[in-house]
Amino acid sequence: MLKLKLLGFIKLIIFLPVSYIFLVSNKITNYIKRQSLHKSSLNDDLRPASTGDQLPDASKEFSASPLKNVNKMIHPHTYIHPNAKLATNVKIDPFTVIHQNVEIGEGTWIGSNVTIMEGARIGNNCRIFPGAVIAAIPQDRKFAGEDTLVEIGDNTTIREFVTIHRGTSDKWKTVVGNNCWILAYSHIGHDCHIGNNCTLSNNTQLAGHVQLGDWVGLGGVCAVHQFVKIGQHAFISGGSLVGKDVPPYIKAGRSPLSYAGVNSVGLKRRGFTVDRINHILDIYRVIYNRGFNTSQALEVLEEEFPATDERDEVVTFIRESDRGIIKRYSKNSVDEDIVN
């Protein structure tokens, strides 16, 4: 009797570890099979439309390439609509979604959790950071589903949680130029036109139809009213509320937003000679320092100043301003909310 009990105990000691090992082995094998099937399904269902038979009309820039080469640059947990057109060396991190009717140029990197919606046209060598949303429909009650675009130029950086909306039937597209920096949490509304080499610092908010010339710099937390125009090489201090047009080459600050001199530091950095900068200073002395109203100042500039690119640009900008230009700061122009 004792022998039988001892024999049963030995069998139990041997059987339990073997059974446990067998059970664990089966679970590991099943897990590996499920992962393999899941990855295969992702590669089949979520792969980019980059083969010739799917994109017969694609240009060379978005030409066909073997899927195995594309998938080295695109994470398998990315969703790409079959009709999207991606250049062969676009790199996309996981959990990004790219809708149909999208084109992305050579060398562009797109971070995690980016959403690129229908109508986006993104240039070469751009960098789009996590959380950005490109080409969402405009926040405009009149929008009726028109086929509109967002166009982003080459070498532009779009930082975290930036939103850029498609155009409406007014301009049909929203444009961001080459070599721009659009920093975190900024918003570019429908039908805006941003020139080349512009910098929108953190939390800059552009309403619809805003126009920025080349080399414009906006400090953080600026809010720009719809239809405002800002001339090239202008710089606006952080926290500004921009409700009037800002002429080219100047600095603007204070509250309400006012003329604060010529942006001479920025102009020097961009290769303007001292003579050109002094010429611009003379132009703005007439506009802001000699007591003329806007019409009188323009007449003086056209009659007394030689025709130069700078003079003609300033005069044309002011004549074409629909909202009027910002004024010179004075103690009488402070906001009512400010305590003196």
CATH class of the domain at 45-261: Mainly Beta
Unreliably modeled segments:
41-70, 334-340
Shape: elongated
Supply Rg. 30 Å
User: Could you give me the name of the CATH homologous superfamily of the domain at 45-261?
Assistant: Hexapeptide repeat proteins
Number of strands: 28
- Alpha-carbon distance between the termini? 105 Å
Give the helix level as a range of percent.
Answer: 25-40%
% residues in beta strands = 15-25%
CATH architecture of the domain at 45-261: 3 Solenoid
Mean pLDDT: 85
Largest sheet: 11 strands, mixed
Number of helices: 6
Question: How is the CATH topology of the domain at 45-261 named?
Answer: UDP N-Acetylglucosamine Acyltransferase, domain 1
> Structural class, from helix and strand content?
alpha/beta
Strand order of the largest sheet: 3-6-9-12-15-18-21-24-26-27-28
Describe the structure.
This protein is α/β, with parallel strands linked by helices. It has a domain at 45-261: Hexapeptide repeat proteins (UDP N-Acetylglucosamine Acyltransferase, domain 1), CATH 2.160.10. It is built from 6 helices and 28 strands. The longest helix has 44 residues, at 2-45. The radius of gyration is 30 Å and the shape is elongated.
Task: Quickly describe the structure.
The chain is an alpha/beta fold. The chain has helices at about 1-45, 65-70, 265-270, 275-290, 295-305, 310-320, and strands spanning about 80, 85, 90, 95-100, 105, 110, 115, 120, 125-130, 135, 150, 155-160, 165, 175, 180, 185-190, 195, 200, 205, 210, 215-220, 225, 230, 235, 240, 250-255, 260, 325-330. The strands form three sheets. Strands 3-6-9-12-15-18-21-24-26-27-28 form an eleven-stranded mixed beta sheet.
